[in-house]
């Protein structure tokens, strides 16, 4: 492989890694605070995808207006899902929580299929690309990478420097102690689930920028997002971005050097090795890290 081709693949890997990291952010936030594994995360992403697609293609809204609309809509949807399905079983076994979030996934995906059909959809325009130092950079993926980095910085700053963020960190550290010192833990739970859903909506909102969408697309991203969360460390925002970058490189270079879907085997081998050798992940910890 010549240096220019290798550099192009590195660029693709970084761009894909940023998207993967963005997908994993909401997942790791919800787990870090609530200890809930949200199987509906991929379906929430799909809602964000279709809000951007419908608002841009059907309503003629600006692409960069539909993205914040998707984030706000997913926050509201996340709070509603938590209050109606998660809150009543928050103290139940994790198996019950998994079943409930899986049920939410099926309901959301089925509703999207009924409303929009199962046919793939695509934005009616392309964003094009730019070249930098001879490297081809698709603008859609470049915007997604920038949004991912900004999301990590903003989320970290929110948790570090706001009163609500400190309450979320305290709840993540010790739920019982947080309640004893006057933190309204149920309120923190539904806000956290809302923020996690909003991050899922943000991840989904940028995906139509560079590929076609369908109601089941979130499943493919969700599988790798679980690997990234474990790799980066459960509850770690920087870990989600770093883990996303690692999986992005494995994905891109695995497709080049391994036959068929060998890259996916490599991703799961990394997943297994991390579980065996460093179960806490690279930057394991709660959401304050």
Which characteristics define this entry?
289 residues; mainly alpha; 11 helices; 2 strands; 73% helix; cell membrane; transmembrane transporter activity; amino-acid transport; membrane; Amino acid/amide ABC transporter membrane protein 1, HAAT family
Nutshell version of this structure?
The chain is mostly helical and 289 residues long. It has 11 helices and 2 strands. α3 runs antiparallel to α8 (185-206) and α9 packs parallel to α11.
Topology overview:
Layout: H1 3-34, H2 41-57, H3 63-86, H4 94-116, E1 129-132, E2 135-138, H5 139-161, H6 163-173, H7 175-180, H8 185-206, H9 217-232, H10 237-257, H11 262-277
Antiparallel strand pairs: 1-2
Structure description:
With 289 residues, the chain is mainly alpha-helical. It has one domain (3-227). The protein is built from eleven helices and two strands, in the order H-H-H-H-E-E-H-H-H-H-H-H-H. It has helices at 3-34, 41-57, 63-86, 94-116, 139-161, 163-173, 175-180, 185-206, 217-232, 237-257, 262-277; strands at residues 129-132, 135-138. It has a two-stranded antiparallel sheet. Helix 3 (63-86) runs antiparallel to helix 8 (185-206) and helix 5 (139-161) packs across helix 6 (163-173). The longest helix is centred in the first third of the chain and has 32 residues, at 3-34. The radius of gyration is 19 Å and the shape is globular. The model has no long low-confidence stretch (mean pLDDT 85).
